[in-house]
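[agent] plan:
  1. take the single chain provided in the ticket
  2. run structure prediction with default settings
  3. attach structure tokens to the ticket
  4. add a short note for the reviewer (M.T.)
[agent] executing step 1
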Amino acid sequence: MRKRGIALAAVVGLAALGLGGTAVAEPAEAAGGRIDREAVQRVLDTMTGRGGVAGAQVRITDGRRQFTMRSGVAEVGTTKPVPTDGRFRVGSITKTFVSTVVLQLVGEGKVGLDDPVSRHLPGLLPRGGEITVRMLLQHTSGLYNYTSDLPLDPAGFERIRFKHWEPEELVAIATAKPLDFTPGTDWNYSNTNYIVAGLLVEKVTGKPYDEAVEQRVLRPLGLRSTVVPGDRVDIPGPHAHGYYSVDGRTVDVTRLNPSVAGAAGEMISTTADLDRFVDALLDGRLLAPAQQAELTKTLPFTGGYGLGFEALELPCGVTVHGHGGGIPGYSSIMLSTKDTGVRLEGSFTSAPTPGGGPGPEQLLTEVFC
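[agent] step 2 finished; step 3 output follows
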């Protein structure tokens, strides 16, 4: 889940989340390439040393070369290295999977991007006749962000950490508040949009959105380490842990009920699976050409946000595409150049005490600039 739509913003906030750990670099497979691996390693080590990150793992594609790197520890208080094939909570990167499924349904003629939501989900939204499917995917619906009313600070999150949430319950939190603006006239990142999109997928396909994601994206691409967990509180397989500090106590928040994020941010994956996904998506292997064009179509006021997919121009002038994500304990990135020649996927676990080092914007500079 995220409150802002810029991919970089999802991870910049890590600078305030914790302390670092012992750096453990992944050996490079081959010399050469445009990217300076030693510089990347220094950035990761700074993030885990002073930047509020307990552990970091990244996968980088540099033309024909691909390598993984890591820093910090998998568990605070140990020297256990972060697994470079470890699973992690991807947060709002879930939105790109959901948007892909919706766009596939559009290509099949089962739903229209400019259909009012009330055509498929009558009675769900007070102004569902004005809000379209496109507005949900692009965050221009005006729907209030339900997570703004949840206690997601460290102390408050402990109270709801293992609670089960129905998607309709989350939507109700949002619809109890007025719209932020008239639908289609402005942009505001709202997780509510994708909770509704998940319900839309379920109504149109006749199956829960997680089954649609698995059938339409995960299985065809062979993403065997990616799961939609539902109420399962554990992360399966090897993984690093994320932390909060509550009243001076270090709290491991790795285990949680991700239904609080639902179709807006509950998925678990690996850097390898995310890399295969973003590569296939940008290469046009998941969407028909018309829907591929819609994926990256923006409006003057959406700040580069398309339909569950973002364009971010870096200070050096390079534009990258993808999404970022955050959920208690974890922040993540999935970014690529438009031609997929350079790609970056990463997971950053929060440490229990604040850090004061530079944020991961330096990582993006080293990889893409």
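[agent] step 4 note for reviewer: The chain has one domain: 9-368.
[agent] ticket updated
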